[in-house]
């Protein structure tokens, strides 16, 4: 199916463990984004990518690593998970570099114990 | 730091009436403006975007932009119970940068 998918949809992990959240889009959009959504903070940008092998930090990048070896994939890794990284993570993409309308994946709910 | 402000609500509107949602933003350089709808437990869904001053209509939805006042609004005509959701206002500085979101307005349409 065309669109943007995320996996896993739900994840429970422990403090200090490495976790990777996957994002895959079939639109061939150049630009991809990772956001986290927390009560009281709304959606905040973690990292984004303009193309394969081009990534840049957003508002809250600390503790996260991204890569983009293929245009369609944009994984987000928490190198050593902390409780403060408990959140809902959304991946988004856009080809509209003029208007930047972004389309979101279904999200991953991550709980760090 | 860019900021987007929305009244958190809840905003309660009778079915069939017009719902009016408002948003202000701090960065005068903002170029594009978006309204997303988010149902509980779901991802944000793009419903409107606007980039020029004035009104833009799409079905029951009208987005309004006033760059001089740094103000964006969304009108929903003939409100339906299915419109009950959180509405997120977002702005872009131009190009494909990340969006800056408001915290959202919780809209309740009363049958």
Could you please describe the fold and organization of this structure?
The complex is a heterodimer of chains A (113) and B (111). By secondary structure, chain A is an all-beta fold. Chain A has strands spanning 4-7, 10-13, 19-25, 31-38, 42-51, 54-57, 64-66, 76-78, 87-94, 103-104, 108-112. Helices cover 0% and strands 51% of the residues of chain A. In chain A, strands 2, 4, 5, 6, 9, 10 and 11 form a seven-stranded mixed β-sheet that branches. A four-stranded antiparallel β-sheet of chain A has the order 1-3-8-7, with no helix packed on it. In chain A, a hairpin with a 3-residue loop joins strand 4 (31-38) and strand 5. Chain B has strands spanning 4-5, 11-14, 19-25, 32-38, 45-50, 54-58, 61-66, 71-76, 85-92, 100-101, 105-110. In chain B, strands 2, 4, 5, 9, 10 and 11 form a six-stranded mixed β-sheet that branches. Classes of the chains: A mainly beta (113), B mainly beta (111). The interface between A and B is medium-sized, with 27 and 25 residues.
Structural class of chain B: mainly beta
Report the portion of residues of chain B in β strands: over 45%
Structural class of chain A: mainly beta
State the end-to-end CA separation of chain B.
Answer: 40 Å
Largest beta-sheet details of chain A = 7 strands, mixed
The chain pair with the largest interface is: A-B, 27 and 25 residues
What's the end-to-end separation of chain A, in Å? 34 Å
- Kindly report the oligomeric state of this protein: heterodimer
Low-confidence stretches of chain A: none
Can you tell me the overall shape of chain B? globular
Q: What is the percentage of strand-forming residues of chain A?
A: over 45%
